[in-house]
Amino acid sequence: MADEKTEEKAKQSVIVYAKVWGESPVPPTFLAAMITAQALRPPQFLPMLFPPVLLFSTYLNLADYPVQAAGTSAAWSGLYMLLASRRKQSFTRRFGARGIIRGATMGMCAAQVVAGGLVYAVGRKEDEDENGS
After folding, report:
1. How distant is the alpha carbon of residue 90 from its chain centre?
2. Mean pLDDT across the chain, nearest whole number?
3. Which one of 38, 91, 96, 126 is most buried, by most CB atoms within 10 A?
4. Helices 66-86 and 26-39: angle between axes, nearest 10 degrees
5. How far is it, in rounded angstroms, from Cα 102 to Cα 31?
6. Which distant-in-sequence residues (6+ apart) come within 8 Å of 117 by Cβ?
7. pLDDT tens figures, 108-133
8. DSSP assignment, residue 47?
9. What helix, strand, coil percent values describe the chain, rounded to 5?
10. Which of 126, 106, 117 is nearest to 18 (CA)?
11. Do 119 and 25 touch, CB atoms closer than 8 A?
C-alpha cells in the first residue's frame, strides 16, 4: 500500500486543474477587469456589455451556484473571444502594451471556455440532486 506522503505528492491531472479553474470566482472577475481596461480607452459600447455579465457569474459562484456560474462565464467568454478575434490589428501593434493585454485577454477567454465548459458539462445541478437522477 502507498503511504500518505506518496499520495500527497501525486500529481493532479489537467482535468482537475481545469475543474478547479472553472469553479473559481477569480478568473471571470479578472477577465472583466481586463476587458474593461481595453474598452474604456477609447470608449467602446459593445465590449462593455461583457464585464457586468462576467461579474454576475462571479456573484452566482459566490452564491453557491458554481455549475451555472461556470456555464455563464464560459459562454460569455467565448462570445467575447469571437468578438475580439474579428478586430483587425497590424503585426507591429501586436507587441505593444495594448496588444499584449489583448492577447492575454483572449488566452484567458480560451482557458475559461475550456474550464467552464468542462465544469458545466460534468457538474451536477441542484435540481438533479433533488430528483435523484
Report:
1. 27
2. 86
3. 38
4. 30
5. 11
6. 22, 70, 71, 74
7. 999 999 999 999 999 876 555 566 55
8. G
9. 80, 0, 20
10. 117
11. no
